[in-house]
């Protein structure tokens, strides 16, 4: 299991705490430091939809110019922005056996999918 995110994100902290308390030993991938590949983003967008992977509620998205925001209208344009602004990726994203299974944090979702 790999948890993708950034360490100072409260949602990532909640997810890591829940996983640890429920007996999981997740590996953590800090995509601010380690980056993220276009292939990985493509897989996440295929699984969750690019509109979900792109966090439009976060400060990174809100700091983009109106023109930059309006140019994001497809999976390809979203991936381009997410490669440049990794903080705009909704987090955490959890992969099990190399497959994306969860995005963000909801105790109910984690229990139903991981238990």
UniProtKB/TrEMBL annotation:
Taxon lineage: Bacteria, Pseudomonadati, Bacteroidota, Sphingobacteriia, Sphingobacteriales
Coiled-coil regions listed: none
Listed name of the protein: Arsenate reductase
NCBIfam families named in the record: arsC_related
Gene3D superfamilies: Glutaredoxin (3.40.30.10)
Similarity comment: family membership: Belongs to the ArsC family.
InterPro entries to which the protein is assigned, alphabetical: Arsenate_reductase-like, Thioredoxin-like_sf, Tscrpt_reg_Spx/MgsR
């Amino acid at each position: 299991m790999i948890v993708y995110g950034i360490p100072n994100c409260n949602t990532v902290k909640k997810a890591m705490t829940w996983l640890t308390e429920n007996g999981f030993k997740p590996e953590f991938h800090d995509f601010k430091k380690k980056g993220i590949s276009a292939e990985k983003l493509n897989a996440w967008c295929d699984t969750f939809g690019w509109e979900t992977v792109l966090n439009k509620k976060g400060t990174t998205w809100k700091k983009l110019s109106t023109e930059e925001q309006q140019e994001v209208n497809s999976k390809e344009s979203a991936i381009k922005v997410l490669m440049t602004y990794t903080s705009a990726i909704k987090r955490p994203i959890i992969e099990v056996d190399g497959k994306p299974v969860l995005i963000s944090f909801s105790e109910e979702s984690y229990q139903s999918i991981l238990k």
